[in-house]
Design the sequence.
């Protein structure tokens, strides 16, 4: 029998498959699964550098789900290979083989030591993601090759944006792509730990590994409180 991930309810199993479906359409299509202590941390890289000349920043999307307390795993799989179990709505079937760990999945994410940097309104992130997608579409020539697409995307999503506290505009793209921005107004806490910056939405987290925070401009409010 194929190996499975068992969840306490069908909603968590469906949540993982939704996350994997989004991850399969962006980045390198891989998902990192780490389970311990009754929690499953799922991570993907909707934006990831591919090749020496690629300027695309590596920005991760992460969601934490409740799982079987006895489940322990640490593996990387192709997102498209995760399937629902036909005989158990609370289980997700794993592929027969994992894939080699990627550079982004091998980078250890801090579990402690995060410091508050401020917060951002979700609407600002949504607006910058929309602007960036439009900019990519307008910058691409007719029938561009893969290298041209990567160059344009890398330039636009890697640019620091004052509307997202000087972080790469790609953090907004990842938030939208992974479905972390809901319909309700939200203020998004921003935290830092060393070179890592984390935006914590109600639906998940966006993580960017950039310069150390020494001298970094603090996150500023970009409008009245939205609730």
Sequence:
């Amino acid at each position: 029998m194929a190996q499975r991930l068992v969840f306490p309810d069908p909603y968590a199993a469906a949540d993982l498959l939704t996350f994997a479906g989004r991850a399969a359409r962006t980045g390198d299509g891989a998902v990192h699964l780490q389970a311990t202590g009754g929690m499953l941390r799922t991570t993907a890289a909707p934006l990831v550098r591919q090749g020496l000349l690629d300027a695309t920043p590596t920005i991760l999307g992460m969601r934490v789900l409740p799982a079987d307390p006895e489940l322990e795993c640490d593996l990387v799989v192709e997102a498209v290979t995760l399937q629902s179990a036909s005989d158990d709505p609370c289980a997700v079937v794993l592929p027969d083989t994992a894939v080699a760990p990627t550079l982004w999945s091998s980078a250890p994410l801090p579990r402690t030591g995060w410091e508050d940097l401020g917060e951002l309104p979700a609407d600002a992130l949504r607006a910058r993601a929309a602007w960036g997608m439009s900019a990519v579409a307008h910058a691409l020539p007719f029938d561009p090759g893969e290298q041209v697409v990567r160059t344009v995307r890398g330039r636009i999503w890697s640019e620091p944006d004052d509307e997202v506290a000087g972080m790469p505009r790609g953090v907004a793209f990842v938030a939208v792509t992974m479905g972390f921005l809901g319909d309700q107004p939200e203020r998004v806490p921003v935290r830092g730990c060393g070179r890592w910056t984390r935006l914590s939405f109600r639906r998940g987290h966006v993580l960017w590994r950039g310069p150390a925070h020494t001298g970094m401009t603090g996150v500023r409010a970009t409008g009245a409180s939205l609730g």
Remarks:
- Confidence is low (pLDDT under 50) at residues 214-218, 220-227.
